[in-house]
Write a structure and sequence with these properties.
Keywords: Membrane, Transmembrane, Transmembrane helix. It comes from Dehalogenimonas etheniformans. This is Gluconate 2-dehydrogenase subunit 3 family protein. With about 250 residues, this protein is mostly helical. Among the domains are: about 140 residues, no CATH class; about 35 residues, no CATH class. The protein has 7 helices and no strands.
Length: about 250
Amino acid sequence: MQETTIEPTKENLGVSRRYFVKGAGIIAGGFAIGSMALVQACTSNNPTTTPTGTTTAPPTTTPPPTTAPPVVETYLFFSAVEAATIKAAFGRLLPGSASDPGAVEATAHIYLDRALNGAYANLGVNYHRGITAMNAYCQTKFSKNFGDLTAAQQDTVLTDMQGGTATGFYAPGAAEFFGLLLKHMTEGTFCDPLYGGNQNLVGWKMIGYPGSQAAYIDSEMAIGFDQASKKILTLADVEGIVMPLPASGF
C-alpha cells in the first residue's frame, strides 16, 4: 500500500476563527485570474530595409484563464435539497475557508451521508424529518430553504433550533435535531478519512492530533511532548506498516 506523505508543521495548527452558530463569521474567499499580453513595436532604424509608414505590431492572443473543474459530490442517502441543507448547516456550525478549513472543507457532510447509508441507518428517518421541518421553518420565516438563506439568516435559524423555539419539529424536536447536527459535524470533521470526513486531514491538523499512530516511544508519551511534530498517520497508513518481529519470533 502506498504510504501517505503528509508532514505536519506548526503552521498547520493555526486556527484564527472557530465559532458556533451565534455570532459566527464567514470569510468569502475568491480569486481572479488574468493575463497581460506584451506588445512590442518592431521599428527598424535602417531606412533602406524598412518601408516608410507605421509599423504594425504582431498579433497577440490572450490565453483563456485556467480554472480547476468543479468538484462533483455524489450522495448515497441525501437528496439534492437535503444535501444542500446539511452542507450549509455544517458550514455555519464550523465555518471555514480554503486558508482556514472548517467542517465543509473537511467534507463532514459526506461523512454523514455515508454514515446514514450504513452505521447510522437507524437515524435516517430522524434526518429526513428534521431536514423537512428545518426547511419548512425557513420557508415560514424567510420564504426560502435553509441552503438559500444568507449566513446571518442561517445563524438565526440554527440559534432558534438550539434554543428550542423553532416551530414545526417533531421526533426529533428542534433542539434534539440541532444536537444531532452538531454531534455529526464534529465527528465528520475529526474522524479518520476512511469514513469520508477529515478530508486532507484538515481536522487533525487543526487540533495538532497525530492520527492513528502504530506506537509511541517513552519520550513521545511524556507531558509536554509536541504531538504535532509527529507525522500524521491514518488507519490506511497503519495497515501498511510492517512491524518487525522480535528475535524470538513472537
